[in-house]
Amino acid sequence: MRVGRVVLVGNRLLPRYALAVAETWNGEAADAVLILDRGDTPVAVSIERFDGLPEVTLPTPGVESAAGRVWAAIRARGDGAFKARWSDAAADSAAVDAALISLGTRRAAAVDLVTLGLAARPELGLSRFETAWYQARGVAFPATDARAGDPRSAGGDGARGDGARGDGARGDGARGDGARGDGARGDGARGDAPRGDRPRGDAPRGDAPRGDAPRGDAPRGDRPRGDGARGDRPRGVGDPRRLVRLLQELPSGGYPDRVRLLMPWLDELCADPRLRGAAAELVAPFVNASEDAQALAAALMASPDLEILGTLGAYVGVAGTGAEAAVAAAIAGGGRLPDDAPRGPALAELDRHATALARCLADPGAAGDDELRLVGFVAERARRAYLAGTTNDLDGDHEAVRHYRALAAYLAGEPVDAGDLRPAARAVIAQLDGQVAGAEVAADPSAWPRLWAAAVEGRLVADARIRADRPGFGHWVDLGAVHRFLRDADWARAAADADRIAAESDLAPVRAEALNLAAYAWWQLGRADDAVRRLDEALAVHPVEGVAVNAALVADGPAVLPYLARVMGLTKSPTVRAGALNRAIDLWTAGMCGSGYPAALAAMVRGGLAVPQADNDLHRTLLTLSFRNDRAWLASASVVATGPLQERTARYVQRRAAYETRPSKVSLRAVTVALIGVWRLHPRPAWAVAELNWLVEVFERLLDAPFDPATNPVPAVETLLGTEVLDLAPSLILGVRAGAHLAREAERRGRSLPAETERKLVLTPVRMFRLRRDELDEQDRKAVSAALAAGLEAATGAIVNVTVTRNQQLVRRWRQLEMEPVQDYADGRRVVAQRRYVLDRFDGHVRRCRAYLKAMDGLPVNEGFVRHVRDAIDGWTGISSRVRRSGAV
User: If you classify domain 425-555 with CATH, what class do you get?
Assistant: First the structure.
């Protein structure tokens, strides 16, 4: 594979390095290589010439894909391995193009990004699970830099990391262009997720991830050593914490080869209790199906069931020395340990147990779950499970487990066996089910919601003693009465009582709710300003979503937007957040929020793009608003997208924003690539047609303008023409116009078009028109014919004018050769050879002009122009023929 190869194109005195970024094909065989030499426009070089150029070995990790080799070259140049003048932006864009050819090349590029230590590229379109998996593999088995002496280790032609063929990246072996997690074929990843548990909606379904990837040869004895996971990792390299964090991002039952990634890190995992517990959780789903997982889990899990004496017995049984037996006896009998007590696994286990016990006794709330499990603090673990809502995950029949399970069932409205509850809890529940609130309930705000229905209906009684001891509870009960007044439309009494409660209560939630209810009553009385003031006070006292929603409903005009922004900031509901956004956009669109683009709306739109949006239409609306009103921010913002449609839409709108903010040929090509991605969506969004029309209009405007190297649209045009996006007629017209644009610039500099550009953008469109003209209707045929004629006329005029200048130079050189004295046979041979060279160059220019003349046949080109070109060519041909017949060469 030639793409990504760095070659020497200069000489020893003036070395110059070029980078291969693409190949052109003629049928099944490559006929030229596109290289970046100077600037950011690739230049075509024949295969024969390219293969003869000296190759440069890069001191970078071995990579697998074409894109990876290009990125490796960029990195090597940045590290100072060699000096080059190509554009890194153009090289990176070519790498992305090479990566997007197929699913396999995208996966291979993702693997290479990890190998090179580069950030993930969202352009590859891989799921977050797959990206995290490749990153985890890179952390588990860090790449080492290739050194000079092995030209293939640096990602040259045939570069192999762990083994690769073609352009496919292999995690541990691959064929074709399919990237393997740790075993794959074709374009599908295999071994990255278990059978039936692949990442939903993200994982490709080619060779669907199956859980039958090889397990390696991890030993089944003491602990796994990672022998089956691409060999042991380099010692002292890598970050086990990052490895665990990346593996935690994967689906809990997916990617069973995570076991092999964890094996080489067992020492580090066991040294940190947090990492040890997290690793055990990662391995647990695969214990029943994998012997490797069983072995690793056994090594990671502590043995909380063993008593200290049992541990000591096991220790002495293994060690068997007198000194160690004395240590065991001292501990068992409560005596002092000998000063020279030996250390070993059992004493290390004892130290761990004693340390955990001391921490749990001193501060149970600060102890970790592993420590609680180790020392048997079941009650604290059950309490935490109750607060987290995971009591069903608890094992055993401990009293605390039964109590918290019963308490959770009561709160869920399920039948409860009162005998499972502790006596104090039974007493509180009895109060909750009665009509007179007791001191225990009044003192516990978390129990109040159970009494709310009784408070609203007026059935709940809080006597004077309770009100005196717990005034906050008394005010909360009075709020139930305010609700009754509101229900009965007694607005004045509801407003008065709610204002009184707000003035008297020192509990922020109760005071805020009282102000909220008072605001509603005052709003019903027609005093909206009073209502807004109370809602503002409630938000200052205890900001909650409901109060912000009410404020947005009561306020009007531009004042609504800040409240809707508060709703977005306070809510945890995606539905409420979307509702606030839609309301704000509707108000602004209707002209009810003043002129311009309000800062509050801009903040809401930015916030909406920073979180997932389930509604694709809303997501695009937010992008459109930002594009029209906040373009500079959008161009570099980090936008969250859900699914391929949102991802490609966001990429396109952001790249267009970047182009509109700072137009350049690089940003224009980026817009083109992004639009191609949108165009290939199934189903294709309707707006893509309008955006394609806009892009073509930009191309036409730039092609009509004088040539500007900073905004040259031709690279973007060539990218678009290389896809299936355009129909036949516009593709032919756009191609020949791009060729004419370049030809005029080349003429201005006294040069002709490169042969490859001439073939692709001038002669090929004409040839394709003649071959496929029957596919066009009459109107399109006329339009294409006229465009080809105009473009070909411009390109022909340019090449003829350049040919005139160059032939004049050749004639002057011929006359100089005629004047040179010939003193011997060798001089004569030299002069004849130089004459032949001059005449061959002369004929070459004429042949290129004749190709243009032939291309104009049948096109509506000005007859006088054609006659002028033909006369010039005939004159040059006559001169060449006479010279050759004269025997001068």
Answer: mainly alpha
Query: Cα–Cα distances in Å, from 593 out to 8, 584, 763?
Result: 63, 9, 57
Peptide bond into 683 cis (omega under 30): yes
Fill in the amino acid letter for 299: A
Q: What is the DSSP string of 549-612?
A: HHHHHH--GGGHHHHHHHHHHH---HHHHHHHHHHHHHHHHTT-S-SS--HHHHHHHHHHHTS-
Give dist(CA 282, CA 275) in Å, integer: 10
Mean pLDDT, rounded, for 148-153: 33
For residue 89, CA distances in Å to 85, 663, 671 come to: 12, 14, 14
pLDDT tops 50 at residue 138: yes
CB 443 within 8 A of CB 470: yes
Question: For the chain, what's the residue count?
Answer: 889
Domain spans of the chain, in order of start: 1-124+141-190, 308-376, 425-555, 766-886
Torsion sign over Cα 517, 518, 519, 522? positive
Closest Cα partner for 718 from 266, 125, 90? 90
| Mean pLDDT to the nearest integer, 416-443 | 71
Question: Cβ distance 846 to 876 under 8 Å?
Answer: yes
**Residue 127: predicted pLDDT:** 86
Q: How confident is the model at residue 329 (pLDDT cuts 50, 70, 90)?
A: low
Nearest-angstrom CA–CA distance, 260 and 136:
11
- Residue environment code for 104-113, b if the CB has 16+ CB neighbours within 10 A, otherwise e: bbbbbbbbbb
- Chain mean pLDDT for the chain: 79
pLDDT at 375: 73
Q: How many CB atoms within 10 Å of residue 232? A: 12
Region label for 47, one of left (φ > 0), alpha (ψ between -120 and 50) or beta (otherwise): alpha
pLDDT for the residue 567: 92
Q: Whole-angstrom Cα distance, residue 273 to residue 295?
A: 18
**Per-residue pLDDT reduced to its tens digit, 280-322:** 888 888 888 888 888 888 877 754 444 445 544 544 444 446 6
Where is pLDDT greater, at 786 or 214? 786
d(CA 382, CA 522): 47
pLDDT digits (tens, 9 = 90+) for 78-122: 888 888 888 888 888 888 888 888 888 889 988 888 888 888 888
Q: Are 449 and 432 within 8 A, CB to CB?
A: no
* 249-252 long-range Cβ contacts below 8 angstroms, 24+ apart: 249/128, 249/129, 249/132, 250/129, 250/132, 250/133, 250/136, 250/199, 251/129, 251/193, 251/197, 251/198, 251/199, 252/285
Comparing CA positions, the residue from 592, 591, 563, 559 lying closest to residue 576 is 563
Q: Which residues does 149 contact at the CB level (< 8 Å), separation at least 6?
A: 57
Is pLDDT at 134 greater than 90 in this prediction? no
